[in-house]
Here is the input.
Amino acid sequence: MKKALRITLPATLVVVPVALALCACGTARSSAVANVDVAGMDKSIAPGDDFNAYANGGWIKATPIPNDKARYGIFDMLADDTRKRTVDLIQGSANGGQAASDDARKIGDFYGSFMDEAAIESKGIAPLKPQLDAIQAIAKRSDLARVLGGQLRADVDALNSTNFQTLNLFGVWITQGLTDPSHSFPYLLQGGLGMPDRDYYLSSSPSMTDLRKQYQAHVAAIFTLAGFGDAPARAARVVALETKMAKVHATRVESEDVHMAVSWRRDELAAKAPGIEWPVLLKAAELNDVPVFIIWHPKAIPGLAALVSKEPLDAWKDWLLFHSIEKASGFLPDAFVKESFNFNGKALSGTPELRPRWQRGVDYTSAAMGEAVGRLYVERYFPAETKRKVQAMVEDLVKAFGKRIDALSWMSPETKAKAKEKLVTLKVGVGYPDNWEDYSGLEIVKGDALGNRQRAELFEYRRQLAKLRQPVDRGEWWMTPQTVNAVNLPLQNALNFPAAILQPPYFDANADAAHNYGSMGAIIGHEISHSFDDQGSLFDASGRLVNWWTKEDFDHFRGAGEALAAQFDAYKPFPDLAVNGHQTLSENIADLGGLLAAYDAYRLSLQGKPDVVKDGFPGDQRFFISFAQSWRAKMRDAELRRRIAIDGHAPDQYRAQAVRNVDAWYDAFAPKPSQKLYLEPKDRVRIW
Ligand SMILES: [Zn+2]
Here is the structure.
């Protein structure tokens, strides 16, 4: 599933999108302003025909996507603004002199080493040489298992941010057991593909066929740059091996099926997934004393293991060489950075230009020492007053959601009681974690850019492994405070709202209720609703995977979900490609549930008084316009195709249309039955 508000990119691929341009966020506003961007609307469009274009059409027409971005919208503008603040904090750390704390020095050295392009150029590929030598020295299958195991990192997340992509053979995720919330387990996920998903290897569509050719050329180019002979033949072997991996991979929709996961004891791995010398692999991965694994992809993992024994050793060595270089490319000389961007940025996402180095440096530093950077961010930019106000808003939303549960006509009292229990025990993190990560064990060496990155990844992996021997912490955070996003954690029955999203334009202490509830309120409601979406609803108040529904209630709930999936299946951004209603169902349920709860909370905040007209819009209209403007974005075609393939979220323009299921939107805008978004009352999806 995919619980975050938006997709997050794996840190290995951080070179891909996102970049510059400052929004007006954070500028002082007069009290309780409406915050409707009237100039960004297109009033020539009827709200009932295309509510997204009505609310955002003016902006969409007037705003080009910057050359270094694949997508651009208010989310990206805020991320840019946050990155600008963060680089100042990082550089302040670097200039702290003797007085700098240990963490501040490390942050400054990490960033400074990455920014020292001359030093990186002069070393060439030498920093990677020991690893490449170790791969070339592989002489037998046990050597292969050792190298494959040694590369595993905690780099995927099956239920929170739902990142299923890893360049390693397997992804590792460490968290509570599905049916045992009091202990942590290692989850093993399928991996190994250099392109985003199996479809990129197997689909016969012209755009995928073309990308496969470009990918093979990219693999060859990387080999040539790194000084390996026979590059075209090596590239052909790598792509052929990955195509075999793709054939055994689960689809994106299958990956979201939590019931596919199984538990295997360590001593069962060899029998259930033969082909790998598991004891060797597990020892290298520091997982050899773990008694039980949760196998997220019980068909793909045996499939991949079989390839490890069947495919020629040379093909595996080429695959390992390519992936090792590709993973390190951001920290290698410019020719590698450019080649990686040419494929991962340009070809896959359609982004014309690489974003500035400092922006990549900020993201890498945040990936390496996220909470140390986050601590600086919070001290400077997240006042206690904001935290208090957001906490109050969360309480309003939880109350509103509870009232909606009470009022559901289709749900039995037994199921309602369980749902309420889950709601009242929800643990909501606002801004930043209660306990900060300790980085004293992480070695950061000035001038060793790649080594710093690799040590940081290993440090994080070992921090995750240590959880296997510790009591479960329901207060654990999965996003850094400087992340513009939010996440629901179904196994912890918890939410994280990082400090960076709790600011204008999403949340503005000076804005009126219609804006704050339509924008940030709907986001808070979205995350709460994830606890009750098609997948979140499979977990109880303790985070245990257990069915707490009566059969009738669950059947009704499923039926409503199917109707919503059908609604999204009908959205076609390209003649040959539609949104996948099932792949995006959790998010679409969360958007709708969040919008409904936010609307109720907004009405409650008015205490029975009518909201005044501002900028020519009554309060209810402003609420829905602020909602749609919070999804304001535009995307390049290649990026839109990539996201439809791998993203659990529907494209933003369709998320804004969630209003068509809400009765209050019909009251506010009076759309006509002949208009495109209009749904008869019986066809409006009513879930929560
Ligand atoms: Zn979400």
Q: What stands out?
A: The pocket of zinc ion is lined by residues 3-5, 526, 530, 587, 590 (CB under 6 Å).
